[in-house]
Design brief:
Blueprint lengths: L2 H7 L13 H13 L10 E5 L2 H7 L14 E8 L4 H24 L3 E6 L3 H8 L5 E10 L17 H4 L6
Helix pairs in contact: 1-4, 2-4
Length: 171
C-alpha cells in the first residue's frame, strides 16, 4: 500500500482468521518498532514476540480489554525497565507510543490487522514472558488477518469532526 492509504486503512482489529503470519512479516513489523524514533536515542524498549497459542491465551487475561489476544496469531509485548529518574518515564512511554504506531502501520501495509491493549497484572505478565522484576510490561499489540473484512482505506472514519479537533494558531 502507499503510505497514505496504509494510514487510512489501519483500524483496531480484534477478531482474526486462522491464517498464520509469515515469520518475515513479523520481523518487518518488529523492525518498524526498532527503527521508530526515541527521545535522546535512549531506546530503552524491549519487544517480546509471542506466537505460541497457550501464551497468547494467558496474555489475554492480564487486562480487561485484552481478550482479543486469545485468538491472535501473534502479539508483541512492549517492555521498559524502571526508569533511572522519574523524568524519563514520560519520554520512554512516548517512545513506546511511536513504536506501537510504527508496528501497527507496518502490519497494515502487509494486510495484517492489529489491536492494542494495556497491561494491568504485571506479575502474571512477567511470569508468562519471563521478564525481569525490574521491568514493566507496558503495552501489548495483537496481530492477525482480520476475520471480518480486509484492510482498505476507510472513506468515512468514525472520528470527531476534523474542524473540531484541529485548531490553527489558537484554540
Amino acid at each position: 500500500m502507499e503510505t497514505w492509504d496504509t494510514i487510512r486503512a489501519r483500524r483496531n482489529v480484534r477478531a482474526y482468521d486462522d491464517r498464520p503470519i509469515a515469520p518475515e512479516h513479523l520481523d518487518r513489523i518488529l523492525e518498524a518498532g526498532w527503527r521508530s524514533p526515541s527521545a535522546s536515542n535512549r531506546q530503552k524498549w524491549d519487544f517480546v514476540l509471542v506466537t505460541e497459542p497457550g501464551q497468547l491465551q494467558e496474555l489475554s487475561t492480564v487486562w480487561v480489554g485484552a481478550g482479543h489476544l486469545a485468538t491472535a496469531k501473534a502479539a508483541i509485548v512492549l517492555v521498559l525497565p524502571e526508569p533511572e529518574a522519574e523524568r524519563y518515564r514520560t519520554m520512554d512511554q512516548y517512545d513506546l507510543g511511536q513504536a506501537t504506531m510504527a508496528m501497527m502501520l507496518a502490519a497494515a501495509d502487509l494486510g495484517i490487522g492489529s489491536g492494542h491493549a494495556a497491561i494491568e497484572d504485571q506479575e502474571v505478565c512477567r511470569r508468562i514472558l519471563g521478564t525481569p522484576a525490574d521491568h514493566i510490561c507496558v503495552y501489548m499489540i495483537a496481530f492477525g488477518y482480520p476475520a471480518d473484512r480486509p484492510l482498505r482505506p476507510i472513506a468515512k472514519p468514525d472520528r470527531r469532526p476534523f474542524d473540531e479537533v484541529v485548531h490553527r494558531n489558537h484554540w
